[in-house]
Each structure stands twice: as C-alpha cells, then as structure tokens.
Specification:
heterodimer; A: mainly beta; two-stranded antiparallel ribbon; globular; B: alpha/beta; five-stranded parallel β-sheet
Amino acid sequence: VEVTVDGERITAAEGASVAAVLLAAGRRAWRTSLSGQPRGLFCGIGVCFECVATIDGVDGVRTCITPVADGTDVMTGGGR
Amino acid sequence: MRDVAVVGAGPAGLRAATVAARAGASVVLVDGYHRAGGQYFRQPASAAHAASPIQAQGRRLIEEARSAGVEFRLGTSVWGAEPGRLYLSTMDTVGFRSLVVATGAYERVAAFPGWTLPGVYTAGAVQSLLKEHGVVPGTRILLAGSGPLLLVVAAELVKRHVPVAGVLEATRVVRTAARHPGRGVAGLWRQGERAREGLAAAARLSRARVPLRTGRGVVRAVGTTTVEGAIVARLDDKWRPVPGTERLVECDTIAIHYSLVPATDLLALVGATLTYASAKGGWVPVLTERLETTVPGVFGAGDCTGIGGAGMSLAEGELAGLAAAGHAHDDAVPATLRRERRFQQLYGALFAARPGLADLTTADTIVCRCEDVPRSAIDAAVAAGARTPAMVKSVTRCGMGPCQGRLCRPVVEQLTGAPPGEPPTARPPLVPVPFEAMRAC
C-alpha cells in the first residue's frame, strides 16, 4: 500500500503498524517531549503513548498499535 | 446486552470467551488491538512473515472462538465502565451480565540515565517488531533486565542474524533458584517444555557466542540524540549497581525488560479490591476459587491477576469463562492450574522486582516520561512528606500523563518507601478518547 509520512509517499506492507513503517524508513524519533527531547517508539504495545502521531487528521494516535491502509496520512512532530 | 463480555483477546480472554460461548452464553470479546492474540500469540501483520508454532497455536484458538460464535470487537478500547456496561472507544457501549477481565500485563521498566533516548525500547517492543512486522530496530542490540523474555528475544534476533551485544539478567538465576524453598531446581526440572525452551534459547546464544551474564545490568545509555552505547555494571542481590564495575558496551540499541506488571486498571475501575503480591508482579485482584473478584459477576483471568504466563492464562481463562457463563463446576482446582501455580511461585522468586530498580536513577534522570519529571522532583516531594505515588503525582505531575503512571509507578513505589502502600486507582477515560466518544454515550 502507499502511505504518506510528512508529505512524502512511502510504500508499506498492508497491516503493518505505523511505527513499524516509520522505523523501517529509518526514523527512530518522531516527536518531542514536554522538555524538548526526541522521542519515538518505546513500549510497542500501546501502554506508554511515546510513539503518538497525527494519523488521518487525528492527534495523539498510538502508531505502535495502528495499522496502515492504502492512503493513510501520517504527520509527525505533533504534541499529544 | 450480552451474557458475557470478555476484555482482552490474549490466551486467557480467547479461552474464556470460547468456553463461555460453548456453554451457551452470548459472548462479546473486546480488544484494543486490531488483531486478536494478545502479546503471546501476536499474529503476523501479513502472510509475508511465516507464522511460528506459537502464532499457529494462537490462530487455532482464534478460529475456535469464532466458530463457537464469539463476537469480536477488535481495535476497540474500553475507556469506562459501570455495573453491567462497558464504554468503548468506538463511541458506543456494550451491556453484560458477567464480565471477564483478561487484560494481561505490560513490561516493568527501570529508569536509568539515558533511558529516554531513541533506541532504548522494551524487549517486548523489539519482539513485536520482529514477530508482527519482520522489522529489526537496530544493528547491534543489548538486552538487559530480568525475566525469560530477554532470552527469547535474544534467540529470535540471533536466528535472524542480528548481532546481539549481550544478554544481562539482573538476578543470579541459579543461585536464587537453589534457595527457593523445596522446589528450586527440582521445580524447574518439572517444567519440562518451558525448561527445554529456555535451554534451547541459551544454547542458540552460546553457539552464536553471545555473552550471557547474570547479576549484571545496564546503568546508562550513552548518546545525545540516539543510543551510541551502554554502560553496564555488576548488580548485587537487590539489583543495586556495584560501584567501580562499570564498563562500556558497544551497541546502537538497548532492549530493557524487568519482568511484567499485571494490567489492573479496568479491575480497579470496576471497583475490584486489589492486594499487593510482589511474587505475582505487584497489585493483583482478590479472587475466589472460581476467579470471581470482590465485585459479583466480575471475573479475572490470566496475567492481569498475577504474572503466570500463557499456560496459566489458558487454564484460568477456562475456569473464568465457565463461571461467567453460570456453568456449575466442582470446586476442585484443576491439576493443570495447580502445576501452573507452582511455576508461578518459582517465577516470582526469580524475577520479582528488587528495590535496586529505583537505584539506577540519578537526580536528573527522568522518571515520568510523559511529563518529563526528574528523580530530584520526586525526592523533593518525598522529603516534603509525600508517602504514596498518588501524593507524589499531585505535587509533581509524575504519573499524570497519558500513560497514567503505568510506566513510572514501580519506580515511584520504591522511591516513596517500600510497597505495598495504597493500591492504584483508576478513573475514566482509561485511555485518551475523542470527546465525541464520551458525548455519544
């Protein structure tokens, strides 16, 4: 499937989590914490909320438990 | 209205839902993930990754539940509850006569300098990337903490030819097992299949010349914007680092895992009484022989009632599912469950959290990742009289973020004084949900 990450088109496996797609694209951090530190995936099972991004316009979505579909739009760097 | 609602589609929940449906109950099974199976039976994201024997077993259990007539509500988080009703993130509710809570567990983590750097993951996160997506999150991975999952994940990495910098188990396993009353090593022997699994993993690591050390742990992640190495040290019997034993290990990824914590937030929300049992992973519900909580009609099964693994979860799921369906069974505890409980005692003796878990922090180490609260702020609150995690939270915001203290609580409990203290409380929403979800109910 084709997804968009920060405006860039990426080919991904259908059903892969957004976090897996970001990591496979070489990104480790895609958010900054309250004090400005880079953060990305940590717990991988939806507990810690460190990996959140804006997905299809919805803020604060956990990328580790959200699968991609064709046309999924991911915007990183947001707060939560 | 359903006869039985089951929350959590892992081993315990799948089994509970299936036996309840076969006993004639209408059953709904709710899980926040988009695929059933939970962590243990985590299913591959696509057919491109071959299913392991465990994943195949999970697929059979999922098919059994479906053919028994269980209604699956996947990708659906429970955020609130009242007697006889669950509030769902899909902006609706589901009514029930009986509820089986099978919400599983999550990993206990230690806070140490650098642990918030990108490239530090839980071992479970690394495992899920491998098992579900075939993604390897680094080129040289160090595993540290406590519990058999470290070996399992390391063996999985070696199988995929990923360099493993080492496996550090905080507990001196053999020495501790030998001291375990009566059972000890003999108890391990009787864990036929599990012991074989562990030995096979250890043998695979040894063939790949992966250093496997006990009584050691990671004390610092090195790097500025990503992990560039790790400082490791010897740990004493309480997991406190021994000064002067530090050395640098080359790696670009650190996977940590200090065993598991029961996920009790839904149990707390429905008002079930919790009690502290260090050997079971922390706070667990008080249960009757038929696994009913102190709230009539609410049952608990699997790791959320005390860490016991997949075998115990399946046995408890069966018991809770029958009881929730109102099916009479005799009061004798099944032999499988008795055996699993003996294993639980040994597992608890080996991998229960030690007080040194909190000694890896320095003054400026962030303890609460959600709100970036450093250890110094918590120390100041404790010095000013905060005696419980709840008091620390109200002064420092530690535990107030979206994870609701799930990650930091084990460390904060050590810093506020020895657990048990007060049981954790839970308030809706259990997970952040859009405002519309609340309005729709």
